[in-house]
Protein backbone atom coordinates (compact mmCIF):
# COMPACT_ATOMS: atom_id res chain seq x y z
CA UNK A 1 0.00 0.00 0.00
CA UNK A 2 2.71 2.40 1.03
CA UNK A 3 4.83 1.93 -2.07
CA UNK A 4 1.76 2.29 -4.28
CA UNK A 5 0.99 5.69 -2.82
CA UNK A 6 4.55 6.83 -3.44
CA UNK A 7 4.27 5.73 -7.04
CA UNK A 8 1.03 7.67 -7.49
CA UNK A 9 2.62 10.71 -5.93
CA UNK A 10 5.53 10.44 -8.33
CA UNK A 11 3.18 10.14 -11.29
CA UNK A 12 1.35 13.27 -10.16
CA UNK A 13 4.59 15.13 -10.85
CA UNK A 14 6.12 15.48 -7.40
CA UNK A 15 9.49 14.22 -8.57
CA UNK A 16 12.13 16.46 -10.03
CA UNK A 17 13.84 15.10 -13.14
CA UNK A 18 16.93 16.31 -14.98
CA UNK A 19 16.99 16.44 -18.78
CA UNK A 20 20.21 16.71 -20.75
CA UNK A 21 20.73 17.56 -24.37
CA UNK A 22 24.09 17.54 -26.12
CA UNK A 23 25.23 19.91 -28.87
CA UNK A 24 28.33 20.12 -31.05
CA UNK A 25 29.84 23.09 -32.83
CA UNK A 26 33.14 24.11 -34.42
CA UNK A 27 34.51 27.38 -33.12
CA UNK A 28 37.78 29.25 -33.56
CA UNK A 29 39.29 31.50 -30.93
CA UNK A 30 42.55 33.05 -29.78
CA UNK A 31 43.40 33.91 -26.19
CA UNK A 32 44.70 37.46 -26.25
CA UNK A 33 47.92 38.02 -24.26
CA UNK A 34 47.98 34.41 -23.12
CA UNK A 35 51.36 32.80 -22.44
CA UNK A 36 50.73 29.49 -24.21
CA UNK A 37 49.82 27.89 -27.53
CA UNK A 38 46.20 29.09 -27.35
CA UNK A 39 47.30 32.66 -28.09
CA UNK A 40 47.35 31.52 -31.75
CA UNK A 41 44.13 31.44 -33.75
CA UNK A 42 42.92 27.84 -33.66
CA UNK A 43 39.70 25.87 -33.46
CA UNK A 44 37.96 23.29 -31.33
CA UNK A 45 35.15 20.80 -31.84
CA UNK A 46 33.15 21.87 -28.80
CA UNK A 47 30.62 19.61 -27.11
CA UNK A 48 28.09 21.36 -24.91
CA UNK A 49 25.81 19.39 -22.55
CA UNK A 50 22.88 21.38 -21.17
CA UNK A 51 21.02 19.95 -18.17
CA UNK A 52 17.75 21.37 -16.89
CA UNK A 53 15.64 20.26 -13.92
CA UNK A 54 11.94 20.39 -13.20
CA UNK A 55 8.79 18.39 -12.51
CA UNK A 56 7.03 16.58 -15.35
CA UNK A 57 3.92 18.39 -16.60
CA UNK A 58 0.90 17.03 -14.72
CA UNK A 59 -1.83 18.41 -17.00
CA UNK A 60 -3.37 15.54 -18.96
CA UNK A 61 -4.92 18.02 -21.38
CA UNK A 62 -1.54 19.52 -22.25
CA UNK A 63 0.33 18.24 -25.32
CA UNK A 64 3.42 18.37 -23.07
CA UNK A 65 1.85 16.01 -20.48
CA UNK A 66 4.56 13.94 -18.78
CA UNK A 67 7.40 16.22 -19.89
CA UNK A 68 9.66 18.49 -17.84
CA UNK A 69 10.30 20.33 -21.07
CA UNK A 70 9.96 19.43 -24.72
CA UNK A 71 13.45 18.35 -25.91
CA UNK A 72 12.64 20.17 -29.14
CA UNK A 73 12.12 23.45 -27.29
CA UNK A 74 15.40 23.02 -25.40
CA UNK A 75 17.13 22.35 -28.72
CA UNK A 76 15.62 25.47 -30.30
CA UNK A 77 16.70 27.73 -27.42
CA UNK A 78 20.28 26.40 -27.27
CA UNK A 79 20.64 26.57 -31.05
CA UNK A 80 19.38 30.15 -31.21
CA UNK A 81 21.42 31.43 -28.26
CA UNK A 82 24.65 29.47 -28.76
CA UNK A 83 25.13 26.94 -31.55
CA UNK A 84 23.83 28.86 -34.58
CA UNK A 85 25.75 31.95 -33.45
CA UNK A 86 29.10 30.30 -32.66
CA UNK A 87 29.36 27.43 -35.16
CA UNK A 88 32.24 28.21 -37.57
CA UNK A 89 32.70 31.60 -35.86
CA UNK A 90 36.00 33.18 -34.84
CA UNK A 91 35.64 34.53 -31.29
CA UNK A 92 38.09 37.02 -29.86
CA UNK A 93 38.31 39.32 -26.86
CA UNK A 94 37.56 43.03 -27.17
CA UNK A 95 40.95 43.60 -25.46
CA UNK A 96 42.68 42.51 -28.70
CA UNK A 97 43.20 44.75 -31.77
CA UNK A 98 40.16 43.06 -33.33
CA UNK A 99 39.47 45.95 -35.75
CA UNK A 100 42.36 44.68 -37.87
CA UNK A 101 40.38 41.58 -38.82
CA UNK A 102 37.56 43.63 -40.31
CA UNK A 103 39.75 44.26 -43.37
CA UNK A 104 39.33 40.66 -44.55
CA UNK A 105 35.56 39.99 -44.60
CA UNK A 106 36.03 37.13 -47.11
CA UNK A 107 37.55 35.12 -44.29
CA UNK A 108 35.62 36.48 -41.33
CA UNK A 109 31.99 36.44 -42.24
CA UNK A 110 31.44 34.80 -38.88
CA UNK A 111 33.39 36.86 -36.39
CA UNK A 112 32.38 37.78 -32.86
CA UNK A 113 34.09 40.14 -30.43
CA UNK A 114 33.24 39.40 -26.81
CA UNK A 115 34.02 41.46 -23.71
CA UNK A 116 35.83 38.55 -22.07
CA UNK A 117 38.70 36.15 -22.77
CA UNK A 118 36.96 33.31 -24.69
CA UNK A 119 38.12 30.45 -22.48
CA UNK A 120 35.91 27.45 -21.75
CA UNK A 121 35.17 28.97 -18.33
CA UNK A 122 34.09 32.37 -19.62
CA UNK A 123 32.09 30.91 -22.48
CA UNK A 124 30.10 28.94 -19.91
CA UNK A 125 29.37 32.08 -17.86
CA UNK A 126 28.08 33.76 -21.04
CA UNK A 127 25.98 30.71 -21.97
CA UNK A 128 24.41 30.53 -18.50
CA UNK A 129 23.16 34.12 -18.63
CA UNK A 130 21.77 33.66 -22.15
CA UNK A 131 19.98 30.39 -21.37
CA UNK A 132 18.53 31.50 -18.03
CA UNK A 133 16.67 34.30 -19.81
CA UNK A 134 15.06 31.89 -22.27
CA UNK A 135 14.02 28.87 -20.18
CA UNK A 136 10.36 28.47 -19.17
CA UNK A 137 9.53 29.52 -15.59
CA UNK A 138 8.96 25.98 -14.30
CA UNK A 139 12.33 24.77 -15.58
CA UNK A 140 15.70 25.61 -13.99
CA UNK A 141 19.15 25.38 -15.47
CA UNK A 142 20.92 22.64 -13.49
CA UNK A 143 24.34 22.44 -15.14
CA UNK A 144 26.38 23.04 -18.27
CA UNK A 145 29.39 21.06 -19.41
CA UNK A 146 31.61 22.35 -22.19
CA UNK A 147 34.25 20.08 -23.72
CA UNK A 148 36.99 21.97 -25.54
CA UNK A 149 38.82 18.76 -26.39
CA UNK A 150 38.05 15.08 -25.84
CA UNK A 151 39.69 15.21 -22.41
CA UNK A 152 39.36 18.85 -21.29
CA UNK A 153 36.10 20.36 -20.14
CA UNK A 154 34.64 22.98 -17.81
CA UNK A 155 31.41 22.72 -15.87
CA UNK A 156 28.94 25.16 -14.33
CA UNK A 157 26.56 23.94 -11.62
CA UNK A 158 23.65 25.94 -10.28
CA UNK A 159 24.28 24.63 -6.75
CA UNK A 160 27.87 26.00 -6.82
CA UNK A 161 26.56 29.48 -7.56
CA UNK A 162 23.44 29.91 -5.42
ZN1 LIG B 1 41.59 26.89 -27.64
Which helices and strands occur, and which strands form pairs?
Layout lengths: L1 H13 L2 E13 L12 E13 L16 H16 L2 E5 L17 E4 L5 H15 L5 E10 L2 E6 L5
Parallel strand pairs: 1-3, 3-4
Antiparallel strand pairs: 1-2, 2-5, 5-6
The structure holds zinc ion (ZN).
Zinc ion (ZN) binds next to β2.
Total beta strand runs: 6
Structural class of the secondary structure composition?
alpha/beta
CATH topology: Tetrahydropterin Synthase, Chain A
Q: Name the strands of the widest sheet in spatial order.
A: 4-3-1-2-5-6
Which ligands, by name, code or SMILES, are bound?
Answer: zinc ion
Q: Count of helices?
A: 3
- Assess the beta-strand content as a share of residues: 25-35%
Give an overview in words:
The structure is a single chain. This protein has a single domain (16-160), classed as Tetrahydropterin Synthase, Chain A (2-Layer Sandwich). The longest helix has 16 residues, at 71-86. The two termini are 38 Å apart. The protein has a six-stranded mixed β-sheet. The model has no long low-confidence stretch (mean pLDDT 92). The chain is elongated and about 65 Å long. By secondary structure, it is an alpha/beta fold. It contains three helices and six strands. Bound molecules: zinc ion. Zinc ion binds next to strand 2.
Amino acid sequence: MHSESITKKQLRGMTRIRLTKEFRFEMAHALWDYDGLCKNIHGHSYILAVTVIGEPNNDKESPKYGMVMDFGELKRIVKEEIVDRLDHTFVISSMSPHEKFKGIPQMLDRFEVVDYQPTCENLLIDFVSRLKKRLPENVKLFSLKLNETANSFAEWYSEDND
